[in-house]
Amino acid sequence: ASASSVDIGGYTDWRVPTVKELYSLILFTGIDPSGWNGSADDLVPFIDTDYFDFGYGDISAGERIIDAQFATTTLYMGTTMNGEESMFGVNFADGRIKGYPIGPMPGQNEDKQFYVYYVRGSDDYGINDFEDNQDETISDNATGLMWSQNDSAEGLNWEEALDWVEQKNSENHLGHNDWRLPNVKELQSIVDYSRALSVTNSAAIDPLFNCTEIIDEGGSANFPFYWSGTTHANWTDQPGSFASYVAFGEALGWMEEPPMSGNYTLMDVHGAGAQRSDPKSGDPADYPYGHGPQGDVIRIYNYVRLVRDFSSASDENILPETGGIELFQNSPNPFNPSTTISFSSDIQSEQKTELNIYDLKGNKIKSFPDFIVSQTLNYQIIWDGKDDSGKKVCSGIYLYQLKSGEFTEIRKMMMIK
């Protein structure tokens, strides 16, 4: 059924999601079943099946077990395969984003079929709000993340990437020592799906960022894959040997046409903005024609863009710390299902105090009853991840604000699933 004819839960304003909206559902607790010949009951998909219906490809009907691709409204600005107009889809079976031809797949006569999860509500999810800090950092007020404007300028394997981040922190790079390798959802959040090398002659990222130009496997100018800190597990004997990356240049592959011919052609098989995975270590020469059914190129030595949390624009009105009160970082953080917010006080007179939790748009989602703070005491408040109505909130970044007399302070925390 088309979205316009769907009536679920009494709502009739459902729509097909964008790739960033749909990707928000992916969970990297899944296991890539590529090449698996056993029962689907032994597999773990990349989506929470406590809340969403999901099924693997029907092998008995001639499908592959990974044929569980879900459609989005996000079209690739370039083309994939043999010049095909393509749409970005999310595969919750194997944990990837790929551009898929809207028409038949290579060697097929019928148009590719997709599953759909409908969505409703605000359509501003995934829209970046970048700010050039004029110090080689870029802040995204939409996510509360600060990024390095420049990348690593060289390819590194995954362990080297982690070491490079630590080295930058030891140098207090750009005035900060809390940089990290982004998780794959953070990394995908800065993809600009309106850009493609063949159309805009640029990487798939806002031009505020600098991307090192590389020479790709075909000897042409291109842009890198970027490592995330997210392991991409598979069912093999080495389940943690791959990590996810996002392609900011063409997601190249060695297509064998016709199949089993030994005739390989290098092409953009999945589009800039695809998310795939590479071995964390090894020699790319061991994969002369890539990996998987579309021959995904294996680079192993990918690039790095640093990220860190920053104080959001809503923090600008924080008053100086006065009154002998100190607010601490919640623990655990990230958390699920609950976390403890702590603060201490050494004020001598009684003072009315309030604690509130907000989302990144500034909406108050949880208010704790006002309490009186006095003397030298430590306070702990447990938040169970529910809003004032008792409904569990979605995973994401939240702000908690403590106000007591003239003291106001805000900190960030992250709920995960």
Overall pLDDT, averaged?
88
Total beta strands: 20
Radius of gyration over alpha carbons?
A: 24 Å
Shape: globular
N-to-C CA distance: 30 Å
Low-confidence stretches: 312-323
Question: H/E order of the elements?
Answer: HEEEEEEHHHEEEEEEEEEEEEEE
**Into which percent range does the helicity of residues fall?**
under 10%
Structural class: mainly beta
Question: Could you explain how this protein is built, in words?
Answer:
It is a single chain. This protein is mainly beta. Helix content is 6%, strand content 29%. It is built from 4 helices and 20 strands. The strands form 6 sheets. Strands 15, 16, 17, 18, 19 and 20 form a 6-stranded antiparallel β-sheet that branches. Strands 4-5-6-14 form a 4-stranded antiparallel β-sheet, with no helix packed on it. The longest helix is centred in the middle third of the chain and has 13 residues, at 158-170. It is globular and about 85 Å long. The model is unreliable at 312-323 (pLDDT under 50).
Annotation keywords:
20 strands, four-stranded antiparallel β-sheet, mainly beta, 4 helices, 417 residues
Question: What's a quick, concise take on this entry?
Answer:
This protein has helices spanning 19-23, 158-170, 184-188, 197-200, and strands at 69-70, 86-91, 96-101, 130-132, 137-140, 145-148, 214-215, 221-222, 225-231, 242-247, 252-256, 264-268, 275-279, 307-309, 325-327, 339-359, 364-367, 371-383, 396-404, 407-415. The protein has 417 residues and is mainly beta.
